[in-house]
Design a protein that fits this description.
Belongs to the ubiquitin-conjugating enzyme family. InterPro entries: Ub_conjugating_enzyme, UBC, UBQ-conjugating_AS, UBQ-conjugating_enzyme/RWD. By secondary structure, this protein is α+β, with helices and mostly antiparallel strands. 32% of the residues lie in helices and 18% in strands. Helix 2 crosses helix 3. 24% of the residues are buried.
Length: 152
């Protein structure tokens, strides 16, 4: 599944129930120019039950917690078998630019979204930079271990 809408998803390896998706931030939102990786785990009774969708790339947002869980009605009580992978990712992409502050998973992000736009945008970038620095450090350690297994 791919297209020019800023979302894509493909099976992860041979397991057709496990997919990796990407979402690009929409133009005119604080997420413009950013790209996020998501995991989609489809239950055996899909499409009658929703997939478990989580952000793998940290995303500072009122409706996304620190573990990547997403508060979106179509992934819960408003699920319909009419939703496919593309419509799920497009809904999440839309949520990035239009959070639902009535049901936040991240109350701090919800407060900043409502009251301090500049600090909100800074926090988005800060969470990504922290992730990238940790990821880079782990990558360095894995690729530079000596024979004894020590990085330094």
């Amino acid at each position: 599944m791919s297209g020019d809408t800023g979302v894509s998803a493909f099976p992860e390896g041979e397991n057709i129930f496990s997919w990796i998706g990407t979402i690009e931030g929409s133009k005119g939102t604080p997420y413009e120019g950013l790209s996020y990786k998501l995991s989609l785990k489809f239950p055996l009774d899909y499409p009658f039950k929703p997939p478990l969708v989580k952000f793998e790339t940290p995303c500072f947002h009122p409706n996304i917690d620190q573990c990547g869980n997403i508060c979106l009605d179509i992934l819960q009580e408003m699920w319909s078998s009419a939703y496919d992978c593309r419509s799920i990712l497009l809904s999440i992409q839309s949520l990035l630019g239009e959070p639902n502050n009535e049901s936040p998973l991240n109350c701090y992000a919800a407060t900043l979204w409502s009251n301090q736009e500049g600090l909100y945008v800074f926090s988005i970038l800060d969470s990504l930079l922290l992730f990238l620095s940790v990821f880079s450090a782990l990558h360095y350690i894995q690729n530079n271990q000596n024979c004894e297994g020590n990085a330094f």
